[in-house]
């Protein structure tokens, strides 16, 4: 395969009820800086390193007609088929900050020996699962 055909991962787009509220929530709960929130509040972006976390309304005639309607879980026992994974050096402090700013705690941070990292889970204001983890440590060879 030619190297010019390898893509760069550019965006994760999250379909939300209210773009402005979600942008504000992620800035406060997870510590992101807002890159952009357009005047119509139909598109927002966060500074997240090499990629971008973007928000757009769940229901858009422009894309619903092309790609289908966004499906939302019907109950708290269901979740969307995707989760955001955010990496922190201090997972406990990040988890605490997220919950203090409106994230719903799902699972307190704990060491996952098999994964080589510490991981906790919260849900955002739209019910999306957010994994908050440390950097993955290389496994030790015996």
Mean pLDDT: 86
Number of strands: 8
Helix content: 10-25%
Describe the sheet with the most strands. Answer: 4 strands, mixed
CATH topology name of the largest domain, in short, is 2,3-Dihydroxybiphenyl 1,2-Dioxygenase, domain 1
Quote the beta fraction.
Answer: 25-35%
Number of distinct helices? 3
Order of strands, main sheet, comes to: 1-4-3-2
Poorly predicted regions = none
* Succession of helices and strands: EHEEEHEHEEE
Give the count of structural domains: 2
Pfam families: Glyoxalase
Domain VOC: 8-135
Identify the notable features of this structure and list them briefly:
globular; 2 domains; about 140 residues; 2,3-Dihydroxybiphenyl 1,2-Dioxygenase, domain 1; four-stranded mixed β-sheet; about 35% strand; 8 strands; alpha/beta; 3 helices
Describe this structure in words.
- By secondary structure, this protein is of the alpha/beta class.
- It folds into 2 domains: 7-60, 2,3-Dihydroxybiphenyl 1,2-Dioxygenase, domain 1, CATH 3.10.180.10; 76-142, 2,3-Dihydroxybiphenyl 1,2-Dioxygenase, domain 1 (Roll), CATH 3.10.180.10.
- 20% of the residues lie in helices and 35% in strands.
- It is built from 3 helices and 8 strands.
- The protein has helices at 19-30, 61-67, 91-100; strands spanning 11-16, 33-37, 44-48, 51-57, 83-87, 104-112, 117-123, 129-133.
- A 4-stranded mixed sheet has the order 1-4-3-2, covered by helices on one side.
- β7 (117-123) and β8 form a beta hairpin.
- The longest helix is centred in the N-terminal third of the chain and has 12 residues, at 19-30.
- It is globular and about 45 Å long.
- The mean pLDDT is 86.
């Amino acid at each position: 395969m030619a190297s010019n055909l390898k893509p760069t991962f550019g965006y994760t787009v999250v379909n939300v009820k209210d773009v402005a509220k979600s942008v504000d929530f992620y800035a406060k709960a997870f510590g992101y800086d807002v890159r952009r929130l357009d005047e119509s509040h139909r598109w927002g972006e966060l500074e997240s390193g090499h990629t971008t976390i973007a928000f757009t309304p769940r229901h858009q005639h422009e894309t619903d007609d092309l790609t289908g309607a966004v499906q939302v879980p019907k109950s708290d026992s269901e979740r969307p088929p995707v989760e955001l994974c955010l990496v922190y050096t201090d997972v406990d402090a990040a988890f605490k900050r997220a919950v203090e700013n409106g994230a719903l705690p799902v699972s307190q941070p704990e060491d996952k020996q098999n994964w080589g990292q510490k991981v906790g889970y919260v849900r955002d204001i739209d019910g999306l699962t957010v994994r908050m983890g440390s950097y993955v440590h290389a496994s030790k060879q015996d």
